Amino acid sequence: MSLHRQLQQRAAEARPIRVGLIGAGKFGSMYLAQIPRTPGVHLVAVADLSPEAACRNLARVGWDPQRVQAASIATALRDGNTHVGDDWLALVRHPAIDIVVECTGHPIAAVDHCLEAFAAGKHVVNVTVEADAFCGPLLARRAADAGVLYSLAFGDQPALICDLVDWARTCGFPVVAAGRGHKWLPHFSQSTPDTVWQHYGLTPEQAARGGLNPKMFNSFLDGSKPSIECTAVANATGLEVPSTGLLYPPASVEDIPFVTRPRSEGGVLERKGMVEVISSLETDGRAIPYDIRMGVWVTVEGETEYVRNCFEEYKAHTDPSGRYFTLYKRWHLIGLEVGYSVASLALRREPTGVAQCWNADVVATAKRDLQVGEVLDGEGGYTVWGRLTPAAASLQRGGLPLGLAHDVRVVRPVKQGQSLSWEDVAMDTGTRAYALRREMEALFGAGAS
Questions:
Q1: Residue 415's pLDDT band (boundaries 50, 70, 90)?
Q2: Which one of 68, 123, 360, 385 is CB 3.0 to 4.6 Å from 149, fit for a cystine?
Q3: Are 82 and 43 in contact (CB under 8 A)?
Q4: Domain 360-448's class?
Q5: What does residue 395 show for φ and ψ, rounded to 5 degrees?
Q6: Mean pLDDT of 163-177
Q7: Where are the domains of the chain?
């Protein structure tokens, strides 16, 4: 039975999936916009640092104010309404909630939220992929140990890429490469919140009018977010990562099967079976027509003459050899699609992407020369960006995960372009996120190396 049919059945039986949402910002608001239009789902509670802002976002996306209340979760459950407050612990520990959607975007807090949800017997859809990037394999193990499910969020590009990879392998195709698109030129890695809008083609005034967050947007532009997302994909699918980081080959949709071949066959890959990101800009900055900037893709191989003939007969667009074919989605709808993950966990008990190994890491890398005493400001900021790195190489060098490069002080000089290590900073070792990462290094290190 389809997920939608099962949701309709749950609605008819007055037995909805009961959801708790932590974080009602932009991504969370997009999910909130779809919940009233989805049968068989009851948003029992929202926890946010600013309940007032969360209520404003609920109203902005069309929620009936009568359905939103500050009373207890139990009261909201009884009345079929939604509690809004700031107590995330009460949310994850409430016995009525089936699934927690972690949507804060704060990686250190997200680890706490996930671990507490597992301990309370809740499935988790983790939108905060930054946390998955530095400790996702151990989060997945902790969930399994607790008898619950942990999943990446559909609508975000990593889960969509995982879906394409799963499609390919289930159909018997070897995956040659998979990834997403991006607007990229090499100097973007040095972009800061002060320069982000000129690269996007917006004025600071236009950005302010739209309420756009320059640090968040800059995390995409400077390559941090693509590296984070490719890390999540590699760890969930077992695909490998480029030894020196993402290459960002420029290509139109039609050219993806041409460039995502091994170098020995005229492409850019070190070998078959890798993640990569396609740039929507030529190296001279010219925009590429029919780009994949907002989409995802997978390149597969037709191993036999018969399969390659099928590609030709059905007009599948391949590389010139006819061996490599790319399937793609040109767009993703971000938070509007999260409900698919919620339904998949609750009804099929299937994650929409979950770490299976530790193949990849994203390491904090200096945007400029860093001096002793400076404080790192994490992804999208003024000090560091994230470089995709094989996990074995990161482990050997003691690489500092980008997700933990927030509010930590530099203790020795770091040159521009140099990846930071644990020894370069004074870490706060008291967080659960730090402890989980170090435990993961000990547990998975032998496999990664």
A1: very high
A2: 123
A3: yes
A4: alpha beta
A5: -65, -40
A6: 98
A7: 3-155+335-348, 158-184+223-332, 360-448
Q: What is the sign, positive or negative, of the torsion defined by CA atoms of 162, 165, 169, 174?
A: negative
Three-state secondary structure call for residue 45 = strand
- Enter the tokens of residue 220: 């995409």
Tell me the pLDDT band of 448, cut-offs 50, 70 and 90: very low
Tokens of 365: 């890398």
* Whole-structure pTM value: 0.96
Q: Which CATH number fits domain 3-155+335-348: 3.90.930.12, 3.10.180.10, 2.30.30.40, 3.40.50.720?
A: 3.40.50.720
Q: Where are the beta strands (DSSP E) in 199-350?
A: 274-279, 296-301, 324-329
- Residue 349 CA to its chain's centroid (Å): 20
Residue 28: CB partners within 8 Å, gap ≥ 6? 21, 46, 57, 101, 103, 127, 335
Backbone angles phi, psi at 286, to 5 degrees: -70, 140
Encoded tokens for 203: 């004025």
Task: Please answer whether residues 280 and 183 qualify as being in contact, where contact means their C-beta atoms are separated by less than 8 angstroms.
Answer: yes
Q: Annotate 380-443 with DSSP letters as a single string.
A: TSSSEEEEEEEHHHHHHHTB-BGGG-EEEEE-S-B-TTPBPBGGGEE--TTSHHHHHHHHHHHH
Q: Which residues are registered as beta bridge partners of 406?
A: 377
Q: Which H or E element spans position 361?
A: strand 360-366
Tokens coding 332 = 């993703």
155 secondary structure, DSSP code? T
DSSP string, 192-227: -TTTHHHHHT--HHHHHHTT--HHHHHHHHTSHHHH
Q: Residues of the chain with pLDDT > 70: what percent?
A: 99
pLDDT tens track for 69-114: 878 999 999 999 999 999 999 999 999 999 999 999 999 999 999 9
Distance CA 375, CA 409 (A): 4
Spatial distance between the Cα atoms of 152 and 137, rounded to a whole number of angstroms: 12
Mean pLDDT estimate for the chain:
96
d(CA 18, CA 346): 9
Query: How far is residue 325's CA from residue 303's CA, in Å, rounded to a whole number?
Result: 11
